[in-house]
Amino acid sequence: MVSLRCKMVVKEELKKLGLHFIVVDLGEVEILQDLNDSQRDALKIALNNSGLELMDDKRSILIEKIKNVIVEMVHYADEFPKINYSDYISEKLHYDYTYLSNLFSEVKGITIQQYIILQKIERVKELLLYEELNLTEISYLLQYSSVAHLSNQFKKITGLTPSQFKLLKNRHRAPIEDI
Distance from first CA to last CA of the chain, Å, rounded? Predict the structure, then answer.
């Protein structure tokens, strides 16, 4: 659950099933009552029908939490943390970064750093589409060391320069939850 739309869908499904919740946050839900097997199955089916899944495997839950921290940091935070990403993620999740990094790489097949880069490139695409900020402002906002660094990374990931991307008629952006 990595978008606000996902949160809305989950809330609606919980309401339809008569389940009372305390918190529906990115990646986790806290329900007031214990779920019986039939409620759990009904919730699982309802979420699957909406393109979401119910996770109860601790490793999968932790991976989702890592992804949510990164998505929140890149797409929803007013500014990037002033500390290293590794320290930020470790502090947010209360786990040793080496453990998180090894788990993420093992399960997802890419490093946390690569995932952050993919998220940042999607954010760059979004900001380019809005046309409110120039590339210098975008590079500063996303804490790139320079416009050249951003441009090189953008081209490496997308195969296009930021300028070429802006000129495309069909500008393709991947949904955040698909990255």
Answer: 12
